[in-house]
Amino acid sequence: xxxxxxxxxxxxxxxxxxGSRHSREMEWRPAVxxxxxxxxxxxxxxxxxxxxxxxxxxxxxxxxxxxxxxAIQMLMNAFVGxxxxxxxxxxLWSVVGTVSRHTAELITTRQAxxxxxxxxxIGALAAYALQRLLGSDEES
Length: 140
What we know:
This protein has about 140 residues and is mostly helical. It has four helices and no strands. It has helices at about 10-20, 35-85, 90-105, 110-140. The two termini are about 60 Å apart.
């Protein structure tokens, strides 16, 4: 090469890559149907679903039952208070004013504000997901 022969750079590169371009080592092989890993995955998923169901049942059922009983107690107390107020001669509008004033005080607490903010965030995320879901049909 040093005797004045000029080798074009393209020919040199093609010569070097010629063997690696047609190598059979890195070819994509089709996936073999393997029933054992698939069965193991399905079994693991089934165990996970059962475990989460049991955990949910053990935690959420008592909490939900307690909340239901507490709501019934509060509703009964509210009706008893309303009946006693009306029996004492208090006008309906003064009862409504008292109830609305106490409701406003409850809503302005830190816990209620956090709960309302979380509900608004969940609603916004649900609206966004619904828009993405319905919007994907229009684009295609």
